[in-house]
Write a structure and sequence with these properties.
- By secondary structure, the chain is an all-alpha fold.
- The chain has 14 helices and two strands; from the N terminus they run αααααααααββααααα.
- The chain folds into two domains: 229 residues, no CATH class; 91 residues.
- Strands 1-2 form a two-stranded antiparallel ribbon.
- It is elongated and about 155 Å long.
- The termini are far apart.
- This is TerB family tellurite resistance protein.
């Protein structure tokens, strides 16, 4: 019994020890391993896609914020461009009108006008002779053969010639200069008396006309120079008048857009009208206009540029029309240059007429050289005076500040 009991105890202890020993894990089959790997990859892909979507959302959000900020910056840029352009344009309007008026008032200069007038005066001795005296001398020597005081008839011819020369009627001639008108009248007078005066024959008249023509050719050339210069100046002034009309229209448009009182022309000249208008429409007033506009659209401490531009579309229109203003300044620059071209041409023609006087023996070379040098100096002085008065560079510098090529829509 004791051995049987001991055996039972041993068997019981073995079974208890076996029950306490951990069970070995079961090895997965190949199919089970494949299924696990597939599930891990899918989860990883889902996680990666979620991360990509999250990153994309952040990028889109940043892009939207950037666009909104860019839109705001763009509105600021547009406004500042418009404001600066219109401020500079207000100064350009004033300068352009002022320079148009100045150039319109120009012929040459007082000194140059006096010089030309003296050359064209039949009483003047600028070239060493007086046309009036020379005509009387030719009548006495050629027509009357040195017998001017031989009888009463001859004396009357001389007196009548002097009377024709001194007649004030020639000062009112517009198609001919006084020297040419006088020469023509004296010739007609001599032809008329030759009918009843046998001592004045056709050969005598031809000889007289030949000598007189030496002077006529000189004065014709001088007259041609004067007429072409005057015609050129008148055409130049007509173009300046047209330019000023266009400037007036442009200013009316801008003033209306900026809510300034429009220039009232009435019976006044366009120059006078614009001069009056520029008492109010000037740079500092335009600057004030924009300052008030900015204050109106300030929200807190920030200007609402988008609303400002949206509710004031005329500002864009004014900006987009500034190219026309620049074209007007370019047109003035052309007319300004044309004036000096006219002056150069005039200078050349007057010098040519003086050379004719020398070639025809009316004046000696030294006298002609002196007069040509005097004329050149006067012409150079006139150019400098006009350039200083108009100061075209001032207009260049101002228009260069206007960014007229940038249109706002």
């Amino acid at each position: 019994m004791r051995y049987l009991t001991l055996l039972l105890i041993v068997l019981t202890s073995f079974h208890y020890a076996q029950a306490q020993e951990p069970e070995k894990p079961k090895q997965p089959t190949p199919e089970e391993l494949k299924q696990v790997r597939t599930q891990d990859t899918t989860i990883r892909r889902i996680m990666e896609e979620l991360q990509r979507i999250n990153d994309s959302d952040k990028q889109n959000s940043n892009a939207i914020q950037g666009l909104l900020q860019g839109r705001e910056i763009d509105n600021i840029t547009k406004y500042e461009l418009i404001r600066n352009n219109i401020v500079f344009a207000s100064e350009t309007y004033y300068l352009l009108n002022k320079k148009i008026i100045d150039l319109k008032s120009r012929t040459t200069t007082n000194n140059l006008d006096v010089f030309i007038t003296s050359l064209n005066n039949p009483e003047s001795k600028e070239l060493g002779f007086s046309l009036s005296d020379r005509i009387v001398e030719l009548v006495e020597k050629v027509v009357l053969k040195g017998k001017a005081d031989k009888n009463e008839k001859n004396s009357k011819i001389v007196e009548s010639t002097k009377s024709i020369i001194s007649s004030p009627i020639f000062q009112s001639f517009t198609s001919l200069t006084p020297p040419l008108a006088i020469a023509n009248s004296v010739m007609n007078f001599l032809h008329s008396i030759s009918v009843n005066n046998k001592e004045i024959n056709q050969n005598t008249l031809k000889e007289f006309e030949k000598e007189l023509n030496k002077y006529v050719v000189y004065y014709t050339a001088l007259n041609d120079a004067n007429q072409k210069f005057e015609y050129g100046l008148n055409f130049n002034k007509d173009q300046l008048n047209l330019l000023q009309d266009n400037l007036y229209d442009h200013i009316m448009f801008t003033a209306s857009a900026l809510k300034f009182q429009l220039p009232q022309r009435g019976n006044k000249s366009i120059g006078e009208t614009l001069n009056d208008f520029f008492f109010d429409f000037k740079r500092d007033k335009v600057v004030t206009f924009f300052s008030d506009l900015e204050n109106k659209y300030t929200r807190g401490k920030k200007i609402d540029y988008e609303a400002l531009l949206r509710e004031n579309p005329n500002l864009k229109e004014v900006n987009n029309q500034l190219e026309d203003l620049i074209l007007q300044t370019k047109r003035f620059e052309n007319l300004y240059s044309e004036y000096f071209t006219l002056l150069d041409s005039y200078y050349g023609k007057v010098n040519s007429s003086l050379k004719i006087a020398q070639d025809n023996g009316l004046a000696d070379k030294n006298t002609i050289d002196t007069k040509q040098a005097e004329f050149r100096n006067l012409k150079d002085e006139a150019v400098k005076e006009i350039q200083a008065s108009i100061n075209i560079k001032e207009l260049y510098n101002n228009t260069d500040k206007i960014k007229y090529r940038y249109r706002i829509f």
